[in-house]
Amino acid sequence: xxxxxxxxxxxxxxxxxxxxxxxxxxxxxxxxxxxxxxxxxxxxxxxxxxxxxxxxxxxxxxxxxxxxxxxxxxxxxxxxx
Length: 81
What we know:
Blueprint: H1 4-28, H2 38-58
Helix pairs in contact: 1-2
């Protein structure tokens, strides 16, 4: 949890969860994008992202990734032979 790789992976997960929740909520609203309940959709997507962040922190006792079964692969410099 104390590595930058962990926080980068966690931030990516939170943003991805936010986007997925927002698309799902807006997609379920068949009235159209203009008539959608944007405050409600953004609120629900924000809550989903916050829960993804809290889940990553709660499960950070596992390997080096934000989940129990994940590992973060650090970018290694390319070796040119």
